[in-house]
Amino acid sequence: MARGRSVLIWSAALFALAGAGTLLVLRQAPSVKAHGGSTARSERDAPDSASAVRARLDALSADVERLRFNQIALQARRTSDTKASSAPADSGAPDSVPAAFDPAVYEAELQGAFERETFDSAWATQTEVSIGAAFQSPAFAGSELVSAECRNTMCRLEYKHGDAVARNRLREGLRSDPAFQGITIYGNAQDEQQLHYVAYVSRKDGSLPQPTLLETAAR
Amino acid sequence: MSAIKKLLVSGVVLGASAMATSAGAVDDKIIPGTSCQPVFGTAEYIVDGSVQNFSTTSTLELDCPVVRENIGTATPVINNATVWVVNPGPTNTSVSCSLYTESHNSGSFMGVTVNSSSINPNPQPLNFGAVNGAANWAVHFRCSLPPSLLPVGASGLKNIRWQEP
Known about the structure:
heterodimer, A: alpha+beta, four-stranded antiparallel beta sheet, B: six-stranded antiparallel beta sheet, 1 helix, elongated
């Protein structure tokens, strides 16, 4: 019984809302031609109601314009993202979401930060020796250290692998060798075979600079 | 209460609940240590969900996958993470874990390594900050459990928690 009454109330409310909407639409047409006589007469009959409806229509028109502007902006942004997503180096997986992180760009940012660093001679020299020794250990067999340079908070390494097995062995060695304990590392291949890498290594318990450009791009 | 009032109240309640949900949205996940795979050594999977190294001579190397739900995000791909480990000793050993993000073609990677800092038969956290990466990069942990110290107990990995942006 109570449920039936509730349904009745909701139906009445919906009917009333629909009626109000219809009234609004019916009154909209003459108000557009506000300079006509018939409209002037209806406004005289109910001046408060007419002005309220007109204000409501103005607000609705503004909303429509705002939505249209947003839609145009959204379409422009999507077009821009589509163009950008075709360029990044790491967009190979089947995914419509554009990749905002470009490994080569991050590497360039790290290179810039590295070059701007001051020189902690004691730490840098000692760490370069440790890294050189690590590459002489069996855990790094098959990999060649091209260069290792340390500054103040990080080191830049360049190394090459004889083959993929040596590359995997080096990844394991990076975990186990004392020279690389407690560090943050970012490695980026320089060739398609992934046998030539440039890597940036933080000081122990340190971190690498954040990719500032990428944060901006990520929105 | 009239129907209109009911409608308004319903809208307010729905809006408030939606705002509360979005304000408190934290994408945390946790997995037991038994999710990890042995890479080197013999893993002992314990009924409490942990994985342990019973060997008194060999290190156990584990690889643990981290499921990424929001694969389209970048920088960072993980906000923070915690690995709960047990390191009963001896004093010159530590449990070491690395959190890696890996590009789909193995061309790029980023890793952060954290070692346990104390000897304790009870679980202790290894805390990781944010790690960077791109859309579609995979995430995993690599952990080393040192040989067990008898009769104190075995080194182990209890669980892994991580938070995505």
